[in-house]
């Protein structure tokens, strides 16, 4: 627990200021994930829940307090209480201490329940960290894709500018019709609009990542500097490997571990409810003092007494508490089944998505991008030398631009699919190291 708090304080005091001193706004993925730990509200709430669960263990591991009773009796309204010191008053006085003794292992069952709930809160904290890392990673790769799209839009706009100059020269030379030049001008204006659109998308991506990092004021400066994740070799992720990974990762999932801990807590709570039928006893020790009075001329005296109290289960057999605890235990068991099913679906889906995204990216980078580049280069060369028409070069250029943008999207989808698969399989095996 101390290590968690130390990590948060370290991030707060060092990581964010170190980045804020950089002038270019460059940010790596690992650094972004560390920065997101600081100031994240969900993480701070989960940490507070862990601290509350630890306090509940201390409260559970406590025996009932004794009760002190001071009492006066035998006060005669007609004669009064007499004169003199307190011990000489004509009233009887007594001092009694009552101590309840719990039976049926109630204290141990309370501790057991509280410890299970503390394990669940720690697993919840780990799950919040897992989801936070995934959200930051996906926002980071969206920003990287937005940077790439803006560069593509700018390069395309620059290419249209140079093509427009060449077209105007050919029109002056009488080699190109004015209508063809107008077509190029229209596409050049569209490319300029695409640059504006790419700038807007980049700003939105910066705002999204900045919000995840808890530093919206620095959004305009954010710039993703890490490259795209490497592509795995073809066939490196076969179905057998995925199935083995899914089976191994399922019980390590933080949400599954939290649900299991709550099943244990509910079982302990049910045993505690059943233990209510074991009677607790209360032992009392009493001392009495009576002074000399008109009714008792023999003088003062002292006496002691011992009492034992047993509750009588006449009206309440604790059926309501037992049934409520049983319903909570059943609900916890169903929640565990639901959580395991959702985790299993998440693991299988993320593995499939990562495999499909890798195949699509591999096809773009090995086939589609080179083919579109060759087609565009050939069309540009032919157009500049008068061997191709305007529509041919415009079509080739649009295809090239669309392929580049699709490739950027596919890279981002692959990177986010890898992050989702890693998040789905993530889990701490040691509840003390979250």
- Using the CA coordinates, give the radius of gyration: 38 Å
Number of strands: 6
Instruction: Specify the number of helices.
Output: 9
Helicity range:
55-70%
Q: Mean pLDDT score, rounded?
A: 84
Q: Based on the structure given, which CATH architecture of the domain at 2-54 and 123-258 and 340-425 is correct?
A: Up-down Bundle
From the 3D structure, determine the CATH topology of the domain at 2-54 and 123-258 and 340-425.
Answer: Outer membrane efflux proteins (OEP)
The biggest beta sheet reads: 4 strands, antiparallel
The N- and C-terminal alpha carbons lie at a distance of 8 Å
The general outline is elongated
- Cross-sheet strand order for the largest sheet: 2-3-5-6
| Topology order in helix (H) and strand (E) letters | HEHHEEHHEHHEEHH
Helix/strand structural class: alpha+beta
CATH class division of the domain at 2-54 and 123-258 and 340-425: Mainly Alpha
For CATH, the homologous superfamily of the domain at 2-54 and 123-258 and 340-425 is named as Outer membrane efflux proteins (OEP)
* Unreliable stretches covering 5 or more consecutive residues: 1-18, 428-434
Family: Belongs to the outer membrane factor (OMF) (TC 1.B.17) family.
Protein name: Outer membrane protein, cobalt-zinc-cadmium efflux system
Pfam families: OEP (PF02321)
InterPro entries: MdtP/NodT-like (IPR010131), OMP_efflux (IPR003423)
